[in-house]
Specification:
By secondary structure, the protein is mainly beta. The protein is about 5% helix and about 45% strand. It folds into four domains: about 100 residues, Immunoglobulin-like; about 120 residues, Immunoglobulin-like (Sandwich), CATH 2.60.40.3620; about 90 residues, Immunoglobulin-like (Sandwich), CATH 2.60.40; about 100 residues, Sandwich (Immunoglobulin-like), CATH 2.60.40.
Length: about 475
């Protein structure tokens, strides 16, 4: 019995000693984790870069010195210009020329002016499994894009641009120039210029005059633009300022010339204007085209419609092919641009001149029913009609005490007025604004509705009231 107790005490003491000094030998041994080491990245400016002088597809934009631990893995290297444009860069400071050009264009446009960019280069790397980066301080980069000289405006000069002087044509001088149209954008962002002109004889010669030359004592000083071959009849080709020659248009007609001065090219198109051109816009939820009429087939169109939203123009009633968009204040072009801005909600006289690439909106503030019933007072507020938006007409209820002669006048003025077409005083179904006949109306009370849209479709109805 004593031996058993003594053995138990020895065992208990032995166990207590093990608990006090216990080490788990089954747990693997670990060495201390090595901390990732930060790196440094220093960039300094290089000489100004002219893209036109760069011969390869990459260019050094910085002198750089990168100090990161040996054996680390570089995962990415970038440079960010002006905090918005980020492109790839090598650790030695080289970037793709194409990427650099795109960044400059995004920040400043395509003009070949020297631009100063503020760049921050960053290298991302992995050190002992930890993601790290080394970022340089801001460093300036001066870059000039490559582009030819582009004038702010150009003028067509030649046989087709003339005035008559004593029975003979005066042309090829500073007094007889036709200005090219251009958008409101910088000429390097939109280098295209267009002009529409008429040639009234065969074999008409032309050249292009930049704005800088038209005020010179000799307008033919260097800078004039022309074709490479004299008498070139091609409808497209290259332009030059180096000993420029005159191009030639062989057939009479209406033409549109388009210049691309970034590429120094030209394109000439013979135009065949149609009888109708169309407006379409938000006023009809883009579901209805409104016809504008061009009676002379000269690219000038007019119509009358209610507008309250953005809109466009197009040459076809049933499709969008060749549609015209906004190209600056009062200008349109088939350039794939934005919608024409929404005007103040109103009924408008809409005028389009495709030859000039322009449009104009004239608000119709009033329509006066003017005639013998009001002593031909064109500004008589008592006979102003009210616009009915639902029926797209102007209307008034009026009692004529006796047989009456009348017309309809716009904006309290005789400049635009409507009467019977073809000299017919009873032609209510066809009103013209070209010297229309006074309409004859019998005595009585009528609901009068005037429907204006375009020449040849304007009409008025007189509905007797009991």
């Amino acid at each position: 019995m004593k031996k058993h107790i003594l053995f138990s005490m020895v065992l208990a003491a032995s166990m207590a000693a093990c608990t006090s000094d216990y080490t788990d030998w089954a747990k693997p041994l670990q060495s201390a984790v090595e901390e990732a080491k930060s790196g440094t990245y220093v960039t300094t400016s290089v000489d100004a870069i002219k893209i036109a002088d760069v011969t390869g597809d990459s260019v050094n934009i910085f002198n750089s010195r990168l100090n990161i631990p040996a054996g680390t893995d570089i995962t990415e290297s970038t440079v960010t210009f002006d905090e918005t444009q980020t492109i790839n860069i090598s650790t030695s400071g080289k970037v793709s020329v194409a990427d650099l050009v795109s960044a400059v264009e995004a920040l400043y446009g395509k003009a070949p002016n020297e631009r100063t960019l503020s760049g921050v280069a960053t290298v991302y790397y992995s050190d002992n499994g930890q993601a790290m980066r080394a970022m340089a301080d801001k460093t300036e980069v001066k870059v000039s894009l490559s582009a030819p000289f582009i004038s702010s405006s150009y003028y067509l000069i030649g046989d087709m641009v003339y005035t008559m002087n004593g029975g003979s044509k005066s042309n090829w001088n500073a007094e007889n120039l036709l200005k090219f149209n251009h958008s409101d954008k910088n000429v390097y962002d939109d280098p295209e210029f267009t002009v529409v002109f008429t040639t009234d004889a065969a074999d008409q010669y032309w050249k292009i005059m930049p704005y800088e030359n038209i005020n010179l004592e000799n307008i033919w000083d260097p800078g004039v633009v022309g074709t490479i071959v004299d008498g070139d009849t091609s409808l497209s080709g290259k332009l030059t300022t180096d000993n420029p020659k005159a191009g030639k248009i062989e057939e009479p007609g209406i033409y549109r010339m388009t210049l691309n001065m970034m590429e120094y090219t030209y394109k000439i198109e013979k135009l065949n204007f149609k009888e109708f051109f169309y407006e379409i816009g938000g006023e009809s939820t883009w579901g209805v085209t409104h016809a504008l009429y061009g009676k002379n087939f000269d690219g000038k169109y007019q119509g009358y419609y209610y507008l309250d939203s953005e809109f466009k123009f197009r040459p076809n009633a049933d499709n969008w092919e060749g549609d015209y968009e906004f190209n600056g204040e009062g200008k349109i072009s088939d350039n794939g641009g934005s919608n024409c801005p929404a005007p103040e909600a109103a009924f408008y006289q809409i005028d389009v001149d495709l030859a000039a690439g322009t449009y104009a909106l004239t608000a119709v503030k009033s329509i006066t029913m003017v005639g013998t019933h009001n002593s031909w007072n064109v500004a008589d507020a008592a006979t102003h009609m009210t616009y009915n938006k639902e029926e797209n007409c102007w209307q008034i209820e009026y009692t004529f005490a006796e047989q009456t002669s009348l017309k309809f006048a716009m904006n309290d003025d005789w400049t635009v007025s409507w009467g019977g077409a073809n000299g017919d005083a009873s032609n209510y179904g066809n009103l013209t604004q070209n010297n229309g006949k006074d309409l004859s109306v019998a005595a009585g009370t009528y609901l009068i509705k005037l429907y204006l849209s375009y020449e040849g479709a304007n009409k008025v109805t007189f509905t007797p009231k009991n």
